[in-house]
Amino acid sequence: MAKFIVSPKLLRLKPRLTPIVSLPSSHFLHYHFPKPTSSSSTASLPQTLPTSYSLPPKPVSPLNTAATFNNVILDPRHLSCCMPDKRLKVAVLLSGGVDSSVALRLLHAAGHSCTPFYLKIWFQEDFENYWTECPWEEDLKYARAVCDQVDVSLQVVHLTDEYWNNVVSYIIEDYRCGRTPNPDVLCNTRIKFGAFMDAIYNMDYDYIASGHYANVVHPSADQSNKASILELSQDMVKDQTYFLSHLSQFQLKQLIFPLGCLSKDEVRQLAAKFDLPNKGRKDSQGICFLGKIRFSDFVARHIGEMEGIILEAETGDFLGKHRGFWFYTIGQRQGLRLPGGPWYAI
C-alpha cells in the first residue's frame, strides 16, 4: 500500500472505492520494551499496605457443578479462566468499568485473595478544552464502590511520569514523523503490564489480572520452561489480543484474564447478577489517556499545525489544503472536508 509521500506539505488522496481491510503492523507498533529489572520503582505506592488484602478465601464447587457466591449462581464456565482449582494471591487492575469489576468478582468467587489496584495515569490536568470533569474521578468512585461490595481495599498507583515518558511522548514523536502508533498496545506493554508490574515486583503476587477479553494458557508446573500462549477470547467482537500482542513471555507468564472464557453479553449479565454499582455503565471508547479531549486538539497542542496541499493520487490534481500531515493517517476519511468524495488518505 502506498504511504504518504516524503514532502511533509503534500497529502495524497484517492476516491474510496473499496474498503481498507488492514494495514501493516509495523506502521502501528513498537516492538521492544525492557523487562522490569529491579524491585524499586518510581511509581507512588501507598506507604503501608495491609498485610491481609481480602477476606479469607471461600471454597468453591468443583467445575462440574454450579457454584453459589453471595446468592449468585455461577455456571462452572464462568470461573474456568480464573484457575478455580488453586488458591492464589492476585493483583487485579480495576478501572471502574464493568469488565474489570466483573473480573474482580469472578476471581473473588473462585476463592483467590485479591488486591485491586487503580492506575492513575492522567498527565495533563491543565488542558484547556473539555475540562469540566476530571476523567478519572468518576472511574475511581466506581472502582471503590465495587471494592466495598466485597470488602477489599483499593490501592491507587500513580504512574503519571511513566505514562508520559513511555507512551505519550513516544506517540507525539511518532505522529510528528508521520507514523500512527497504537496507544493501547503501548499502554498495555509499558504501563499496565510494565511499570505497574515493576512497581509491585516485591509484593509476591502469584498473578496479575485485568478485564481484557483474551486468554493466556500457561504450561503445567512440571513444564514451566515452556511458553505461555496468548489465545483469542470467546467474544470475537470484543477480543483484545491485538492490543496485548507485544507482551513478552516475562509478562504473559504473570497474567490471568478472567473474561477470556465469556462473551460481553455474559459479562453484562454477571454485572447485573452481582448488582455492581457500575452495572449500567457504558463501555469506554477512544484513546486511553485523553479522557474527554479530542485527539486533534491534543495533536495541535503538542505538535502544532503546518499547512500543506492535498493532491488527488492518480492525477496529481490539486484538491485543497490541510493543517499538517500528522492529523491524518493511511485509510482516513474523516476530517478531510473535501467535496466529490468520499476520499481517503494514502
Automatic annotation (TrEMBL):
> InterPro entries from the xrefs?
MnmA-like (IPR004506), MnmA-like_central (IPR046884), MnmA-like_central_sf (IPR023382), Rossmann-like_a/b/a_fold (IPR014729), tRNA_2-thiouridylase_MnmA (IPR051305)
One GO MF annotation is:
tRNA binding
**Keyword flag Transferase:** yes
What's a single GO BP term from this record? tRNA processing
Q: What broad class of enzyme is this? A: transferase
Q: Which reaction does it catalyse?
A: 5-taurinomethyluridine(34) in tRNA + S-sulfanyl-L-cysteinyl-[protein] + AH2 + ATP = 5-taurinomethyl-2-thiouridine(34) in tRNA + L-cysteinyl-[protein] + A + AMP + diphosphate + H(+)
Q: Where is the tRNA-specific 2-thiouridylase MnmA-like central domain?
A: 297-344
Q: Which UniProt keywords apply?
A: ATP-binding, Disulfide bond, Nucleotide-binding, RNA-binding, Transferase, tRNA processing, tRNA-binding
Any Pfam family hit = tRNA_Me_trans
Source domain of life: Eukaryota
Record-listed E.C. numbers: 2.8.1.14
* Described purpose of this protein according to its UniProt entry: Catalyzes the 2-thiolation of uridine at the wobble position (U34) of mitochondrial tRNA(Lys), tRNA(Glu) and tRNA(Gln). Required for the formation of 5-taurinomethyl-2-thiouridine (tm5s2U) of mitochondrial tRNA(Lys), tRNA(Glu), and tRNA(Gln) at the wobble position. ATP is required to activate the C2 atom of the wobble base.
Hey, which family's this protein in? Belongs to the MnmA/TRMU family.
Q: What is this protein called?
A: tRNA-5-taurinomethyluridine 2-sulfurtransferase
